[in-house]
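Notes to self after the Tuesday call (sharing in case useful).
The group wants a holo model before anyone commits to mutagenesis around the pocket. I volunteered. Ligand is glyoxylic acid. Logging inputs and output together so the record is complete.
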Amino acid sequence: MRFGTELLRQSDVLAQFTEDAPRVTRTYLSKQHRQAGEYLIGLMRAAGMSADFDALGNIVGRYEAAEPDAPVVMTGSHQDSVRNAGKYDGLFGIITAIACVKDLHERDLRLPYTLEIVGFGDEEGVRFGATLIGSKAMAGRFDPAWLDKTDDAGVTMRQALADFGGDPDRWREVDRRGKNVIAYVESHIEQGPVLLNEGLPVGVVTAIAGGTRLNARVTGLAGHAGTVPMGARQDALAAASEMVLFVERHCETHAGLVGTVGKMSVQPGAINVIPQEVLFTIDVRSGDDALRRAAVTAIRAGCAEIARRRRVAVDLADFFTADAAPCDAKLQDAFAQAIAAHGIPVRHLQSGAGHDAMEFPAVAPTAMLFVRCGNNGISHHPDETMTAEDADIGTSVLLHFFENYRP
Ligand code: GLV
Ligand code: MN
Ligand code: MN
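Result:
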């Protein structure tokens, strides 16, 4: 097999750079992020590219064009992972692109554009709560206030960047707007079952769903679990539970919406104490921005009503919003042609997951290629799978795109 077996082997190597083996967890600016980055830089250099970390811990590799001063096409995906992740989310988009360059280099072929492969340091937002840090910085949307955000151990992003060997004060240099970038394309495992159910190895993404993320704080009144009568309680967790169900019900009853509460903490957190305070997150997504905004308004109103009725306080603060990002029509056509050239029916589909690509329309026309996800399409889970055959086809399609794309 031309690419697939080797790509799955590299994925297994990368999975060893984890903070909590045997699970895969690799957060932004961790020691394991550095190790994965060094491994990827090694692959890039062996493939004929120049490569290094940038000031924010992204890795950037360049395969120079045939002519000097040629425009730049960017590709890549993220190096970080969620907690207890699969092996392909993000990393596949980096290694598949490196495999393409290695193939071009071995055939002594240069492109009419410089190809840059980026391994974004943070896309998942697990460590500092800020999401898409690398791609936002490249799209000119880095917020320097993020440098003061802290992780669960109280380490600031500024400190973590300095410890990593980056430079928090040089974040402006990462901005790629106005730097002759003519396209950004990203290959990614689908993370859902659409291609699997239709028996297709690859598909063209039409748009990436937008999302809003909120931090919720519910404040009640702690008390003795044995003495406070049921009707007299201000139980923050019982109220929060009703709010979680409200989010679920609202999103279930409005087609085109998904909503998730994925994180919750209870204080003081003792079996015999009525909960005083609950913190939880809400993640709402849709391909339709108006529908998502209306859902956030409804969730705010629903939580306020539950809080009033239960005599607790609730505060909902949104900390991340991304509008849906349509993919460029011409680049979609170019991917469709590359797929058709492999004798595969062309399937267009929307992405429900967020991706680094959603930030790039601010830099250049953007598109995405999806590669089939096995195992019922499960992802953000250790059972995420991709076959060597699909990795092979996905890489061959991407290579066809690179070889045929003309500025
Ligand atoms: C990233 O994987 C996201 O969609 O949350
Ligand atoms: Mn992910
Ligand atoms: Mn991803």
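Two things stood out.
Residues 289-310 form the longest helix (22 residues).
The radius of gyration is 22 Å.
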